[in-house]
What does this fold into?
Amino acid sequence: MEYQGIRFHNVVELERKELLPGLRLHRFPKHVRYALSENGRIKAVQSNGCELRFVTDAKHVRVTLASLETNGRVLVFRGDFFHSSHHLQAGIAHTIHLEVPERFADVDPERLHNRAFSSKVWRVFCERFNAVFYDIDALGHEVRPPYKLEEPSLAFVAYGSSITQGAGALSHYNSYVQQAARRLEVDALNLGLSGSCHCEREVADHIAEREDWDFAFLEIGVNMMSSVPIEEFSRRAAYLLDTIIEKQPDKPVFLTTIYPNRASYYKDQSHTASDNLRKYNQFLREYAAAKKHSQLHLLEGSDIMTDFTSLTSDLTHPSDYGHITMGERLAEKMRSVVEQLRMTKQHEEAAL
It folds into this structure.
C-alpha cells in the first residue's frame, strides 16, 4: 500500500477515523478483524512488523507517528542497517527526526546493499502497538516508494499464535519470523495473533486471496489445544490448508507442528492440552501425508524449537535467544525452496 510517497509494508488498510487525526496501520482488513474473537480483534489492530518505507535525497526527514493506546517503539533502519530506536508515549504525536548516516559516504556503495534492501531505503519498523501515521516532511525534497530492485524480491506470509507475532522477544525485530526473513533476505508479512490464532474461515480466505506473498508459513494449534476438540481443530485446519492450496497451488506452504511447550511435558499427560497437542500434531502429519501436495512442506516444531530452556518462564514463548535460534533453524529448513523460488522469479523477469 502506498500513500504520500511511502510504501506501507505489511499494511493492507490505512484507516481514518472521522473525529480523530491520522491514519491507523492495519495488518488485516476490517471485515477480517471483525470476524475474529474479542481477543483476536484486539490483537489484529496491533501493527507489529508494519513498516514505513521510502527513499529521498533529503539529508533530514521528519516522520510524525503515534501509538494509540499503549506506549510503543519504532526501530529505524537504512536498508538492513540499524539506525535508531524511538519510544512513543501513548496518545501523543511524536516527530522523529532522521538524518542520513554520515559514514555511508566513506564506504564503497556496493558494500551497503544486500539481496534484500538498498541502503537508500529508510525503514521505520513498528513494534507491537496500534500505530498511527500523521505526516512525513522531507523539507521540500521528493519522497518516493522504493523501486522494485530496492526491496526483497520475495515475501512470505506468516500466520500463527503469539509466538509468531513475536511474544517473548524483547524486540519484535528479534522474533523468529523476522530472524528467518533476515537470513533468507526476504520480506515477512506477519499475521500472528496472540492468543487468538483460531483458523477462522475469514482469515483463511484472506490469506488465500492475497497476491503479495510468494510462500506461506503456518504455525497453528497452540491457541486451541486447551479448549477446542480435535474434530473442530481438524475441520478448521483443513479448511485453512485446503483453501490456500486451492487458491495458490503453485506457491510453497510450510506447515509446522506445535512447538514444544509446558503441555508437552506436563506430569499429567492426560491433561486436555497435552492430549490435544498430540492429536493436533498427528492430524497435521496425516493431513500432509494424505494431501501429497508437492508444495506443502511439513516441519516438526521440535526441530525448530530444540532447546526447552530457550523459552521464557511462562514455558510457552521463546526468549530472545529462543527466537533467534528458531529463526536460524527455520531459515535453513526453508532455504532450498526459497532459493529455487528466487531463481525461478529471476528467470521469469528476465524473459519479460
